[in-house]
Structures are given as structure tokens and as C-alpha cells.
Amino acid sequence: MTPTRPAPTDRPTGGKRPWGLSLLLSILALLLEAVIALVVSFYYGATQESPNVIGTPALLVLALPVIAVFATVVAAALSMGLVLPIVWLAGVLGRRVGGREAWWWVPVAAGAVSLVVVGLAVALSGGSGVGSFALGWVLTSAALAVPALLWRSRRRRVFGPVLLWGVVAVVLTAVLGGVGFWTGLLKEYRPPALTSADLVGRWSDGSGGTLAFSADGRVTAVDIDDDVTEDDPQGGEDDRCSGQGTWAYTSDPGRWSQEVSVTVDACSFENWYVGGTEGRPTLYQYIGDPDSWDLYELTRAQGET
Fold this sequence. Notes:
Elements: H1 19-47, H2 57-98, H3 105-125, H4 130-152, H5 159-183, H6 196-199, E1 201-204, E2 210-213, E3 218-225, E4 240-250, E5 259-264, E6 272-276, E7 281-286, E8 295-300
Antiparallel strand pairs: 1-2, 1-8, 2-3, 3-4, 4-5, 5-6, 6-7, 7-8
């Protein structure tokens, strides 16, 4: 009888996986983690106060190939600059301390490297609270430990399972987020629903500029910044305008497109949008590119109701 060759298994092999394949596996893991982080940040952003969305979905779709290439390059750089050193450090620690390499040294090495990375990031950004630092360290350690563990794995067929379970994790994250909003566990942010009567009174920019709305449709502007820019968000004295004019409020059932049009001869600013919260409504305009979310805001002056 002709001996039969045993079927290939997914058991660990004695030799190491080729270096190039380990690098590709690390890149894949980092990209999947990035997609999960993007989904989480999208849901988190939906719960936070934000201006009305003036987006360009078509341009975003067209830019996806460029974004994918850029993300892959970044993942490759992180794999070489962080994941590979973690694998090396885990091997050194295992041989020096325990006499052999072991997988549990990878999280230890990832924690040590992440502590340095997060510490530098916090120092460059001007500091942060203890809670934010700890959260950033834990998340960074986990994000780097996963590709490092996969890098040192000796299993033959691992790309398929990693891709499959990574996609499952992405879909599960998206579904859980959707269920959270559907059940009310997560609250989607919406601007407060105002009426014309809610706008009557003085609104201040906190720097001496005010708009005073009267119930008869008249408005008085005092030192309102008429030329805010990204380079000069507070404006100068020459950029401020004062005068009297008229105003009108445009409602919107969806709340996002509520606008207050103000016409003052001495001023040339655009319409004001409604933002803030029910307890603290704001009127705002964009400073520069709307995608930057830099806003010139007015809040109700103290003592006004």
C-alpha cells in the first residue's frame, strides 16, 4: 500500500513564519483595529455636541483608495517601529527571566512600549488627566499586543481566521452601536429645538460682542466680530461691527437646519445656526472651512431667560 500523506493541520510548526508574512499579518491586524476604532469614534461622535454636518460623501468615497493606501503605509510603519520591537523585547525578557520565550511576555513588552509612546504623546500635547492617560495606555497596549502576538505565532494558516474574525468584530461593533442607539442606551446628539420666542434677548460672544433680539423682529449688534478667520478667531477692533437691523428665524423639524438670519447694514456676516444643548443653546457661524468645526459662538447673556 502507498503511504498516505497526513492532511495539513493548523498546529504550530517548529520553524518560524517567514518575516515578510509576519509583517503582512501585523499590517492586517492593525488595519482591522483601525476600522473598529473608526466605527467606535463614529458612534461616540454621534453622542457629542457638534455643529450641523456639511459633508461631501461623494468626495469621501472617491478618496477611499487613497485613504486605504495611506492607512496601509502607516500600519507598515507601526509594525516596523513598534510591533517588531515588542516581539523582540518579549523574546529577550522570556529568555532572560524564564529561560524560554513565552507568549505572556508579549503583553508585558507591549505595556512597556506603550507607556513610553503614550507618555511622549501626552508630553507633546501639553499633558492630560490621570484617567485619560491610563485609558490611552491600556488601549494602546492592547492594540499593539494583538499584532505582536500574531507576529510570533507559528501556526501555518492564520491569515484567513484573522481576516474572518476581524470582519466579524467590525460588524459586531457596528451592530452593537446601532442597538445601543435603538434601545436608548446611547443618546444621539441633536441641537435644541428653539422658537422665535426663545431667541428674544441678548446673546454674547464672551468678548464684548452681543446681539440683542427683540420680539418685534428688530436686532441690535454691538461689537460683533464680522470677519472671524482661523488665524484670527477673536478678530480685531476693525473687524467688529455695530448697528441695528432686523432678524428672522427659520425652523426645521430635524433641528439641524435651524437658522437665524440677521440683517444689519454695518455687518456682512452669514446666517447663524442653532447649536448647544437644551439648557445651554448657542448661535454659531463657521470660522473658515466648515469641516474644521471651528466656530464663532454666541451664548445667552447672563441674566437673560
